[in-house]
Write a structure and sequence with these properties.
The protein is of the alpha/beta class. 46% of the residues lie in helices and 17% in strands.
């Protein structure tokens, strides 16, 4: 695990007096970084979840931040929208003094990345997406509805949900390699992180509904995004169907689609040996000076 601490960090005030937490990690000596990579959290994550992977981006500066409801950010029980979260990222870039970034959206972070690309693609050198879809699918709607029913059941049912989630998101290769104790420790950290703020998961999950409702009328806007896009899909992803991820790649005019073998939904963790080198090669080849 990297022992690096943020070079700069802080809280940034957004609407209604709420605050979001951001961190900028220096990956090289001043003036020698290859560029800045922004890693967007999945639904159950926070900035520190990325710390073990900072060394996979050696030589790159890395920007992290918590959405409202996550980590060190405020957790109001208020509706939130994905364009709103994309707007928070623009504010974070301003606070960090960044003009252009390589954006990586993993799972829920992919929704935020898609909205940022639609609204601010001129700020992007590249866009990488994994475990996400752009067009509605019944299987995903059922997964979302099941999650919300678990959330509504309070702490006891939420504990059961974390077991359900951890069974669903990983592929066989990873589950066979990790010890039951380590897997249980991961699950428990997730449970403890959100047991007292389940409302945050509800609000972030509900933000997906207006997003999908707006997609039909916004498809032309997504098709107009010129940013180089890489979609890295897990071969055994049981949350987001592979055909939905491939279809998303076909919407963008400058995109390529790759399948990571023997990986479930959490590709960056399950196939660390493949995900991060492919990401770095993509960023270097498409815009090495960004």
């Amino acid at each position: 695990m990297s022992g690096r601490e943020p070079a700069r960090c802080g809280h940034l005030e957004v609407e209604n007096g709420h605050r979001v937490w951001w961190e900028l990690h220096a990956g090289a000596k001043e003036g020698e970084a290859r560029g800045t990579v922004c890693l967007l959290n999945g639904l159950a994550m926070h900035t520190r979840a990325w710390y073990p992977f900072l060394d996979d981006l050696a030589g790159w500066d890395v920007l992290l931040w918590d959405y409202l409801g996550q980590g060190e950010s405020s957790s109001p029980d208020e509706a939130v929208t994905l364009p709103q979260l994309a707007g928070h990222l623009r504010l974070v870039l301003g606070a960090a003094g960044l003009d252009r970034i390589h954006l990586v959206g993993i799972s829920y972070g992919g929704f935020v990345a898609l909205e940022f690309a639609r609204l601010s693609h001129h700020r992007l050198a590249t866009l990488t997406l994994s475990g996400i879809l752009l067009t509605p699918r019944q299987v995903f709607e059922m997964y979302e509805a099941t999650s919300l029913r678990f959330y509504a059941g309070g702490r006891d049912l939420f504990a059961l949900y974390t077991h359900y989630l951890y069974e669903k998101i990983f592929g066989e290769r990873f589950l066979s390699a990790v010890s039951p104790d380590d897997l249980e420790a991961m699950r428990r950290r997730f449970e403890e992180r959100y047991a007292d703020r389940i409302h945050s998961l509800v609000r972030l999950t509900e933000a997906q509904d207006p997003f999908f409702a707006a997609v039909p009328e916004l498809l032309d806007a997504y098709r107009a995004v010129p940013t180089p896009v890489l979609v890295l899909a897990g071969e055994e992803d049981r949350v987001i169907p592979l055909d939905a991820q491939r279809e998303m790649a076909e919407i963008f005019p400058n995109a390529r689609y790759e399948v990571i073998p023997e990986a479930g939904h959490v590709v960056y963790l399950e196939r660390r040996d493949l995900f991060w080198p492919r990401l770095v090669r993509f960023m270097e080849s498409r815009d090495p000076a960004a």
